[in-house]
Amino acid sequence: MLNGVSGANLVRRQRIALITEEALTIRAQLARDPANAVLVPHVLEIKRLKSFSRRKKSAQAPGTPTSPAPGTPAPSAPAKPEPQGSGTSGSQQV
Length: 94
Hints:
Blueprint (H helix, E strand, L loop, with lengths): L1 H30 L8 H15 L40
C-alpha cells in the first residue's frame, strides 16, 4: 500500500512540475510584449530562483563538520612559537 501512495505522490509532483513549467513559459511569452511590462521583474526573479536549484551542492558526508573559514588555523594544527622580539611582554620562550 505504501508503494501505491508513493507512486501517486510522484505522479502528482510530476504533473504539478509540468503545469508550473507551462505557466512560466506562457508568462515569459507574455512578458515580451511591452503592454505586459509588469511581468518582466517576475520572470527575471523566476529565472534567478531556477538557477539556484540547478547549482551543484558540495558533496559532504552527513555528520561531517563544516570546515573553518579561510584564513583561520585548523584546530589540530600545532601553534607556532612567537619570535622573541615580537614586543609582547607575556610570551617567553623556554
